[in-house]
Amino acid sequence: MRSETRRIGVEYISRVEGEGSLRVLVRDGKVQECEFGIFEPPRFFEAFMRGRKFTEAPDITARICGICPVAYQMSSVQAMEAACGVTVDPAVDELRTLLYCGEWIESHVLHMYLLHAPDFLGYESGIALAADHPEEVGRGLRLKQTGNALVAALGGREIHPVGIRVGGFHRVPTRRELEPLIPRFEQAREDALATVDFVASLPIPEAERDDEYVALSDDDHYAIHHGRIRSTRGMDIAVDEWNDYFVEEHVARSTSLHSHIRERGLYQVGPMARFNLSEELLRPVALEAAHRVGLSAPCTNPFRSIVVRAVETLHAVDLALEILERYQRPPRPYVPVPPVAGVGHGASEAPRGLLYHRYEIDADGRVLHAQIVPPTAQNQGSIEADLLHLVERNLELTDADLQHLLEQSIRNYDPCISCSVHFLRLEVDRG
Amino acid sequence: MDDGTVIIGVGNPDRGDDGVGIVVAAIAGAITGAPVRTVNDPFDIVDAWGFADRAVVVDATRGSSPPGVITVLDIAAGSFPPRFSSSSSHGLGLADAVALGKALGRLPRHLVVVGVEGASFDGFGLSPEISAVVDDAVGKVLEAICDA
């Protein structure tokens, strides 16, 4: 038999946040290498945090990502509040939920309409998609702007909001300030419903993964920023037990750490994990829409993640609308948080999955140690496993078609590479 | 000034010269009385000009010419020149927003972009080099409105 070598190399994966690459080597019909490389420069945020005041954590870590700054703010303030033994007022906590809904909407809608949907319909970009589907993309723009407006109303601006502080918010809006958002969210609910139908109508490739899905899970709510860490294989731990169960390790091809569960291996975080663990806690309108389009847990086809994102968008819009309609300005924007020496853990559900923070602070509130585990780092192993699975089963495709399928597969995870690269340890050996 | 004209300032005032678009738009709006919209996320630009007949977008640029150089582009006539790169720190830049508006059939009939090449994109406020060209950039916005 003639020896044959196929190489597929994508030096710069488009329509993802940050800089990643893909390398596949097939020799004589067998996959020799399949690597999702991350070459975005490391950003050292954990090191930046050392020596800073504990109150600076939300503003500094928010800079890790322009797409999901609220997630970084939320996980960091929760960790600091836990370290100092402070609980925020329930009304302020609900306002945080509202803010987080805005971020889910912004991020999910951007990904669905402009980054991922083009894959399913054979367009090279969201702009090319918009030319042929102006109604759908116009709807996406409108939805995204509604999410932006909510984040701006609570956070001061739509990108890198500055409203959150340890203990609550710097300022909470009046009811009158938020009221104009209500009709926009009523329209957004219609748009989100239509979005579920739109993405469910896309030609979705068949694929199955036997993965362990990990997410925050709460007994009463579809978890966003409260709950325990649970998995579809029985893990049920408190957030502060993270390091007892999860390990991060460096691999040569990536400036981002890879995560796995101790003595178990790969796992997956993100919308599918949340959905598989908490489907029944979705808002009724979202659950009904999911079932209407044939989506129910367990969902193990990564290409259906776009449908889960649409269902979560509807959930976030509907939840935000309810909070807006009954909103009364909290009596105080924040509770004072005097520093206490100790360790605090925080976790919340960024749009693309579980985001864990751990800080050790001294009695003056100076950060001694910081650990930040973003979702894309946790998903890297699963992304590569998907790629390997797809290459092995689709070797008959041309290189161009195979490359398209693999890039589409990477975008199933909505990877945020910029987030994932800020924690590579730098060791200098000075002899 | 009729209601069909809007001035849009794009940028982030907490990111050095990235805020020049917002400063210039505010001054030009105060002089002309035209409505001014401030946009932080380029995604919002299509919404910001809405269905206006004429729009002037002011934004910082980076890497396309020496600091302080002002570039005026009449967009409605054609596509965005690739050399005119936006200084947005996010996935979608001004060029993408314009392309998206065009694809959606939502470009103003007259759309002019005034770009000011920034010197520094760190810290709060404009650098001295860019502060010195704000009046010139305002003049370009006024010209764009009058010529439209």
- Spatial extent as radius of gyration of chain A: 21 Å
What is the CATH homologous superfamily assignment of chain A? Cytochrome-c3 Hydrogenase, chain B
The number of domains of chain B: 1
Contiguous runs where pLDDT drops below 50 for at least 5 residues of chain B: none
Residue-averaged pLDDT of chain B, rounded?
Answer: 84
Approximate strand percentage of chain B: 15-25%
Reported CATH architecture of chain B: 3-Layer(aba) Sandwich
Q: What's the total count of β strands of chain B? A: 5
Query: How far apart are the first and last residues' alpha carbons of chain A, in Å?
Result: 53 Å
List the helices and strands of chain B in order.
EHEHEEHEHH
Question: Using only CA atoms, what is the Rg of chain B?
Answer: 14 Å
* Major beta-sheet overview of chain B: 5 strands, mixed
Strand order of the largest sheet of chain B: 2-1-3-5-4
> What order do the SSEs of chain A take from the amino end to the carboxyl end, as H and E?
EEEHHHHHHEEHHEEEHEEHHHEEEHHH
| Fraction of residues in β-strands of chain A | 15-25%
Descriptive notes:
The complex is a heterodimer of chains A (431) and B (148). By secondary structure, chain A is an alpha+beta fold. Chain A is built from 15 helices and 13 strands. Chain A has helices spanning 45-49, 57-61, 69-83, 90-121, 126-132, 134-155, 175-178, 181-200, 242-245, 271-278, 284-292, 305-325, 375-393, 399-411, 417-420, and strands at residues 5-10, 20-27, 30-38, 164-165, 168-169, 214-217, 228-231, 236-237, 246-249, 258-261, 342-350, 353-361, 367-373. In chain A, the strands form five sheets. In chain A, strands 1-2-3 form a three-stranded antiparallel beta sheet, with helices on one face. A three-stranded antiparallel beta sheet of chain A has the order 6-7-8, with helices on one face. Chain A has a three-stranded antiparallel beta sheet with strand order 11-12-13. In chain A, helix 4 packs across helix 5 and helix 4 runs antiparallel to helix 14 (399-411). Chain A is globular and about 70 Å long. Chain A starts with a strand and ends in an 11-residue tail after the last helix. The model of chain A is unreliable at 421-431 (pLDDT under 50). By secondary structure, chain B is an alpha/beta fold. Chain B has one domain (5-119): Rossmann fold, CATH 3.40.50.1450. Chain B has helices at 20-32, 45-49, 94-103, 128-131, 134-147, and strands at residues 5-10, 36-39, 54-61, 70-74, 110-117. A five-stranded mixed beta sheet of chain B has the order 2-1-3-5-4. In chain B, helix 1 links the parallel strand 1 and strand 2. The longest helix of chain B has 14 residues, at 134-147.
